[in-house]
Automatic annotation (TrEMBL):
Protein's UniProt name: Substrate-binding and VWA domain-containing protein
Domain of life: Bacteria
Keywords: Membrane, Transmembrane, Transmembrane helix
SMART domains: VWA
Length: 595
């Protein structure tokens, strides 16, 4: 019989095949894993290489100093997200630059306007203090629509005692000029020892808020407080007179005049006794005041919001155009502005004192951040420029008699109108810019205009606001009579000037400039007075205690130029020579001599 295996265990499986199978599985998994890892490494390498295949690109931002620090914080956050645009890795740099400095550089043009040493790198994104700066930039400088990022209304920074008086009196924007120019005007507000309003109007670089406050005053004075101030309103007598009063009142304040809003605010904050200090109020944005008070806890300065439409600094984001800004930078600028508009980023601006829709106010300040009745619609660039021109170059109150040559030669056509028409148009414009308190008059001269006299008093010299004329006020009478001026005959300059000068000395007004303004285009052709007679007569009529200057505007080639120059020199006046009445030179000369 054959022998059988015992029943103590199952028959064993050979280890060899199992080992081989395990090795195969390990090799297969290893190969598969290697390919997967290689693919992943390749993908990562390709992604890394493709992300910045075009290299780095820097988005340069020029931001108004009020918002620049917060924009820099947001720029760092944005850069930390590793943005890639058109295969460029984007980083952001922010330079604080005054809004008017960027605006002026854009107006000057790319060839001469931008100075990297003063303004930093040429930006692709510009964030000025307000949309006013955008409107004043040249056409084509901004690509697309500049949308606001952060708003801050314009208020007056004042001491608490003054704020209480202003609120009680319900002071409007239009009230500020009379408070500024009126003698002891603050007594009517219950402040008998404060004198007149000392409203600071800094116009140096970095004082864009002054422009916004000026617009609010002009809109309120013009009777259309919601704005926008039109070019016609900006040139109107009531607006120019009001702005002139503000500007001259500021110039009359004791001490040095601060050039910037920050300097003015510092003077107000540091004042020991507000009733005796020159500056009582400073136009600021609410956010500027918030930061100032945060840095000076315990200050007695607060905000007053005048009645009427409130101007707002809206800090728009403007993507600039031009050869220096490529497509990558334009897209980066757009992507960054959208990033800033996210609520998490907007909170940074809200915490800095800006008003961001839907987000809360800072809770570490005494400012109340009140609501306001209406938002001022900004003026266009031309009207805004005219208003600031008045503030920067106010027409001082003066007493002047205008002696206008209406001889036959003034009928010569220059451009599209006669020499006389061009002259009367320029005079009317200047009279329109003169303050109500100025005393002006109009004489015309030729030959035999008033019997045998070569001159006639068309409008006697006196305050522009005075009534009693057929046309209404003296200002209106001057406008009407200038429009009717017509060429006559000869040119009796010497006899007419002698009479006008004697009349001006007799009617001298103390405390202001007194003058005779002669406008002529030709030589004296009246033999009743010689050059020597005229100079002797003027010397005899002069009175050192009543200085009256003779200013001269001569048009074209005038053989009497030497005599007229001697007349101006001997009376302390000036002579302006213009080649033609057609063009801005005549208006500039008249403005210079009547301002």
């Amino acid at each position: 019989m054959g022998n059988h295996r015992g029943g103590k265990g199952a028959r064993g499986i050979s280890k060899g095949p199992l080992i081989v199978l395990g090795l195969v599985v390990v090799i297969v998994l290893g190969v598969f894993g290697w390919f997967q890892l290689a693919d992943r490494i390749d993908d990562q390498g390709a992604a890394a290489a493709g992300a910045c295949v075009e290299g780095d690109s820097v988005l340069s931002i020029a931001a108004d100093p009020d918002i620049a620090s917060d924009i820099r914080t947001l720029a760092d956050r944005f850069t930390a997200t590793s943005p890639v645009i058109r295969d460029h890795c984007i980083s952001v740099t922010v330079t604080p630059v005054a809004s008017d400095a960027v605006r002026d550089a854009l107006i000057a043009g790319p060839e001469v306007g931008w100075d990297d040493n003063l303004l930093g790198p040429r930006p692709a994104l510009w964030i000025p203090s307000s949309s006013q700066s955008i409107r004043q930039a040249p056409a084509g400088a901004v690509s697309g629509e500049a949308r606001p990022l952060a708003a801050s209304p314009v208020v007056l920074a004042v001491r608490s005692e003054f704020e209480s008086a202003l609120n009680t009196a319900a002071v409007d924007w239009k009230d500020l000029p009379s408070l500024q120019s009126g003698r002891g005007s603050l007594a009517a507000l219950g402040l008998p020892n404060w004198g007149s309003l000392g409203l600071a109007l800094p116009v140096g670089s970095g004082s864009a808020v002054t422009e916004l406050a000026i617009e609010a005053v002009a809109a309120s004075v013009a009777g259309d407080s919601a704005g926008p101030v039109t070019a016609e309103q900006a040139h109107s007598p009531q607006v120019t007179s009001a702005l002139t009063g503000l500007a001259l009142g500021y110039e009359a304040l004791p001490g040095a005049k601060p050039e910037t809003t920050r300097e003015a605010l510092t003077l107000l904050t540091d004042a020991d006794d507000p009733s005796t200090e020159g500056i009582h109020a400073v136009p600021v944005t609410e956010q500027q005041l918030y930061l100032a008070l945060r840095d000076a806890p315990g200050s007695d300065v607060t905000a007053f919001m005048p009645n009427g439409a409130t101007p707002v600094a809206d800090h728009p984001a403007a993507i600039l155009s031009g050869p220096a800004v490529d497509e990558t930078q334009s897209r980066a600028a757009a992507q960054f502005t959208e990033f800033v508009r996210e609520p998490e980023q907007g909170q940074v601006l809200a915490d800095a004192g800006f008003r961001i829709e839907g987000l809360g106010r800072p809770d570490d300040t005494a400012l109340t951040f009140p609501g306001f009745e209406a938002r001022l619609v900004p003026a266009d660039s031309g009207a805004a420029a005219e208003m600031m021109r008045v503030v920067r170059n106010p027409v001082t109150e003066r007493t002047s008699t205008i002696l206008l040559d209406v001889s036959r030669s003034m009928g010569a056509v220059e451009g599209v109108a006669s020499r006389l028409a061009n002259t009367t148009t320029a005079l009317a414009a200047q009279i329109g810019r003169s303050p109500d308190a100025s005393s002006l008059g109009l004489w015309e001269y030729s030959t035999n205009l008033d019997g045998t006299r070569p001159y006639t008093t068309v409008v006697a010299t006196g305050p522009l606001s005075a009534g009693g004329f057929t046309e209404g006020t003296r200002r209106q009478a001057l406008d009407a009579r200038l429009a009717k001026a017509a060429p006559a005959a000869g040119t009796a300059t010497y006899a007419s000037l002698e009479a006008a000068y004697e009349s001006a000395v007799a009617g001298f007004t103390a405390g202001r400039t007194n003058s005779v303004l002669l406008l002529t285009d030709g030589a004296n052709d009246d033999g009743s007075l010689t050059r020597a007679d005229l100079l002797a007569s003027l010397a005899a009529a002069g009175d050192p205690s009543k200085p009256v200057r003779i200013d001269v505007v001569t048009i074209g080639e005038n053989p009497d130029l030497n005599t007229l120059q001697a007349v101006a020199d001997r009376t302390g006046g000036s002579l302006e020579k213009v080649a033609s009445s057609d063009g801005p030179a005549l208006a500039t000369a008249i403005s210079k001599l009547l301002s």
